[in-house]
Amino acid sequence: MASKSRSIPATPDAHSRKRVHELESHPRVVAALELLRQRADEITDLQEEFARLPSPDHRAAQRARLLERLLQEAGLSRVRGDAAGNVIATLPGADRRSVLLSAHLDTVFPDLEKIEIEREGTVLRGPGVADDAAGLAAIVHVARALREAEVPLHHDLVVVGTVGEEGEGDLRGVKHLFEAEYAREQVVAFLTLDVGAHRSFVHAGLGSRRLRVTLAGPGGHSWSDFGRPNPIHALSRGVARFLDAVPHPRNGRSSYNVGTIEGGRGVNVIPEHASVRVDLRSESIQDLTALELALHEALKAGVESERDWSRAESEALKLRVEVIGDRPVGVTDPDSPVVRAAVAAFAARDLHARLARSSTDANVPMSLGIPALGLPHGARTRNAHSMQEWCDVRERQPVLDAVLLTVVALSAAGGPG
Ligand SMILES: [Zn+2]
Q: Which residues is 281 bridged to in the sheet?
C-alpha cells in the first residue's frame, strides 16, 4: 500500500457489536484465537522469512512458492498458482460464494537481490520488512488457525497472495484475479492486509495514472549544431508548464509527481532522447482525467515552444506518451455490512477504526462494485517504501484477533450476502 490521506472515525453499530460478541464466545472461534496467541513468535519468524526473500520483477516467485507450501501444510484445499503468478487456496465453506483474504507478494524493491533484515526484540528493520511480508504471515496464520480449530464457515474463505501490487506492477495480479478467476457475484468481500497502522482501514481506492513520456530529436553537437531542437529542453519546458497549470497540493484531492528524468549522452551533446515518468493520483476520476489532460497539453505546448525557438520543422521532435500504470478509483460504502463487521471486530479489541483512502489491491474490486477493504496486518510500520523501513510487532495480537473475527463475521452463516 502507499500514501496517506485524511481519515474519518468509524463507530460500530449495536447490531454488529452484538454479533461479534457472540462469535467471540463460540468455542471454535475461541480455540482459533488461542492458536494465534500461541503462535505469536512463529508469526514474526514467518514475516522475517518472507521479508528476506527477494521479489524480482514484481513476481516474487520464491515468496509465491513459500506461500503455496505453507497453505498446503495448513491443510487448505485447491492450492495453486494462477496464470498471473498469484497463489490461491481455499478453506471450503458450505456454499460456493467466497470471502477473499489477501496480501501482496511483491515489494517496491524489485532490484534487490539480497535483503538484510535486522531484528531486535519486537522491532524488525529492512526494506519491505512489513509491506507486505507482515500481511503474508498474517493470512497464512489466520487461515491455519481457522482450519485447525475447525471454525464452521458458510462461505468459502479464499486466501490469495497477489503479484504486481506495487508501482509498475500496476495491480496486475488482482486485475487478473477478477478478470479470470472470480466473477463479481461470487465474491462476498475482498480484504487485503496491507496497512501498517493498527486502526486504519482503507475503504476508498485512490486512482492513479502513470505515464512514460519520451521525446526524440535529431541530436548533434552542442556548439556547431546549436539551434537544433533539444528533447531535454522541450520536456523541461513542458514539465514547467504543467507544474504552473495544475492546482496547489493543498487542495488535497489529487497529487502529481515527476518521478524520473532520463536522457542525453554527455554535456556537449544535443540529446537524441529524453524521457520522464509521471505519477498522477486522485480521489476522483474527473480530477484524474483533468490532470492527465493538463499534462498532455503542457507537454505539447513545451514541444511547440522548443520548435518555435529552433525554427525546426514540425517532424523534428517526436513526442510519445505511454500509459505504464492505471489504477481504478473505487469506494466501499462506510455503511456497508463489510465495513460494519470489520469496524465492530476491531472495536472488540479496542481498536477504533478510522476510514482512509489509499492505493491498494482493493482498488480493483472496489471499482467493480465488490465490497473491499484494506485492513491492518498488525506490524506498526514506519518509512515504508524506503531502505529504512522498520516495524514494531509488539501489538500484533489484537489486530490479528480482529482480522480473524472479521473473516468469521463475513464468512459465517447470516453474514453479509
Ligand atoms: Zn503494500
A: 208, 255
Those residues whose beta carbon sits under 5 angstroms from the ion ligand 1 are 1, 131-132, 194
Q: Ligand 1 centre and the CA of 58: distance in Å? A: 12
Q: How many whole angstroms from 347 Cα to the centroid of ligand 1?
A: 24
Whole-structure pTM value: 0.86
SS (H, E, C) 45-69: HHHHHHHHCCCHHHCCHHHHHHHHH
Written as one letter, the residue type at 99 is: V
How does pLDDT run across 323-374, given as a tens digit for each residue?
999 999 999 999 999 999 999 999 999 999 999 999 999 999 999 999 999 9
Q: Which residue ranges form the domains of the chain, and what is each CATH number?
A: 8-206+329-411 (3.40.630.10), 207-327 (3.30.70.360)
Distance 313 CA to ligand 1 centre (A): 47
Give the three cell numbers for residue 83: 496464470
